[in-house]
TrEMBL record:
Gene Ontology molecular function, alphabetical: serine-type carboxypeptidase activity
Signal peptide range in chain numbering: 1-17
Pfam families hit by this protein: Peptidase_S10 (PF00450)
Protein name (Swiss-Prot/TrEMBL): Carboxypeptidase
Length: 497
């Protein structure tokens, strides 16, 4: 389809050495293209704005420029009332390209049905995008994508930390919503990995500091969100993920392997809660016969030997599991997606040499996002697109730091409209699915919000949407979540007895 190109420039461009890169920074500019995509059999016309919007300090001075891509459906009336989804990735330090070109946007990178790179690199239409039901903006925090601080004299502490990140991004969102005339729209935050820490904190910050009330928060592969699940709980809670991964690699005994994944896992989850956690809690005072029986059951579910489980006193570290599961076959498995295989220098050792899944993802996403932004959306810059890793050190100190799960709980309590959807891949070993369920349970200790919290699982890993089958179902789950939580015109935000 022919694209119409417009360019807007509102601020002069200035050259600075932003955290080591002396290239031109655009503070307030955009490039707009027009296109269409067929979603669920329906043609959807849209505009795509690739632009920059400043971050202002308390004195009204631009201290950074955030790059974003905004998709707005153009073939519908009352566009100012269409739901708005604000999308963040994680890291901290990960660009937005992952969910942008992998998940919810109207274009998707070229990969095979299981998510592996194919050549030639490029993009294709995404027939599962949520653009049919909501406008979407993908935001790049400072030092991700093309976003940069104004100059090297700006303290990194303004941006690189749990609280600082939430504070400046909330200000930026306020400005964006105002500029795009979306105050009357239902609003949603979606975050992946560390992005779930970010959006959980933003939910309360937007309410309390900007009087912006959300309709939904989507947590894709959530972190701990600061909820207490350390020590013995952390060790026990890994077992369901171990079992799912062992099932995928077909190393379980027939009585378990012959069951479907979701038919097998409830048994493991119940064992984890009712037997494994109490056993680990007793530590060295657990009776030897009981310890051996627990290890035997763990071996049955995890696909690794009773011997190595006993050597770890029932507390098997995830890195050891990634190395051990297929050690006899000469492979390790991926951290973020344990379907992926890697080959180490030596089969011996306590952890893999590298992350097999992450190298595969960098391989496919980096050329695709650079091609798409520069050649398809027409955004021209000499800045390097930072895919990841440019935001260290990250400050986790201070009041309410890494307690964003409690922030999200409080936001839900204050706002009867606010709902939460959690999405997890069964084979994610970094932000595993059972701990994501545990998060949800702990965020609602009183049991008052069960109708407003939901969890969905998928047969892939951290980026569940890279597998085509899960791309379809995960997008549909988000689509239905938006439809369900967008209130009717006469529906008040209130509690009723």
């Amino acid at each position: 389809m022919k694209k119409l190109l417009t360019i807007g420039l509102f601020c002069t461009m200035t050259a600075f050495a932003s955290f080591g890169q002396n290239r031109t920074i655009k503070f307030d500019t955009d490039v707009v293209t027009k296109d269409q995509v067929t979603i669920k059999g329906q043609k959807v016309a849209y505009s795509a704005t690739a632009g920059n919007q400043p971050v202002w300090d308390e004195n009204g001075k631009a201290i950074a420029s955030l790059f974003y891509v905004y998709y707005e459906r153009t073939d519908v009336p009352n566009r100012e009332n269409r739901p708005l989804v604000i999308s963040f990735n994680g890291g901290p330090g990960a660009a937005s390209c992952w969910m942008h070109l992998g998940y919810t946007g109207p274009k998707r990178l070229l990969i095979d049905d299981e998510g592996y790179p194919v050549q030639p690199y490029g993009i294709q239409d995404n027939p599962n995008s949520i653009l049919d039901v909501a406008d979407i903006v993908y935001v790049e925090p400072v030092n991700t994508g093309f976003s940069r601080a104004a100059n090297d004299s700006i303290p990194k502490s303004k941006f690189f930390g749990v609280n600082a990140d939430i504070k400046y991004l909330a200000e930026w969102i306020n400005n964006f919503v105002t500029r795009k005339n979306k105050w009357s729209a239902a609003k949603y935050l979606i975050g992946e990995s560390y992005g779930t820490t970010r959006v959980s904190g933003l939910a309360l910050e937007l309410q309390n500091s900007h009087w912006m009330y959300l309709n939904g928060v989507v947590l894709v592969s959530p972190t701990s969100l600061g909820l207490d699940r350390g020590g013995q709980v952390a060790a026990a809670n890994l077992l369901p993920y171990f079992a799912a991964t062992a099932w995928h690699h077909k190393v379980l005994a027939p009585e378990l392997q012959n069951k479907d994944l979701t038919a097998m896992l409830p048994e493991v989850e119940q064992f984890t809660i009712n037997e494994l956690l109490p056993a680990i809690t007793k530590g060295g005072f657990l009776e030897p016969e009981k310890k051996k029986a627990i290890a035997a059951k763990m071996s049955k579910y995890a696909g690794i030997s009773e011997k190595v489980i006993l050597e770890h006193n029932l507390m098997v570290p995830a890195p050891f599991f990634w190395k051990e599961l297929l050690r006899d076959k000469g492979y390790n498995i991926g951290r973020l997606d344990s379907r992926y295989l890697g080959i180490d220098k030596e089969t011996a050792g306590e952890r893999p040499d590298y992350s097999a899944e992450n190298t595969s993802w960098q391989h496919s996403f980096t050329p695709a996002i650079n091609y798409y932004l520069r050649e398809v959306l027409g955004y021209k810059t000499d800045l390097k697109y930072f895919v990841a890793g440019q935001t260290r050190p990250w400050d986790r100190e201070g009041a309410n730091t890494d307690m964003t799960g409690e922030n999200l709980r409080q936001a839900v309590a204050q706002n009867p409209y606010l709902h939460v959807l959690t999405q997890s891949g069964y084979y994610d070993g970094a932000c595993d699915y059972f701990n994501a369920k545990f998060n949800m349970w702990q965020m609602d200790p009183g049991g008052k919000f069960q109708s407003r919290f939901d969890w969905k699982g998928y047969r892939s890993g951290h980026m569940m949407y890279l597998r085509t089958e899960d791309l379809v179902t995960s997008n549909e789950d988000v689509r239905e979540f938006i439809k369900k939580t967008t209130p009717k015109p006469d529906q008040p935000a209130k509690y009723s007895r």
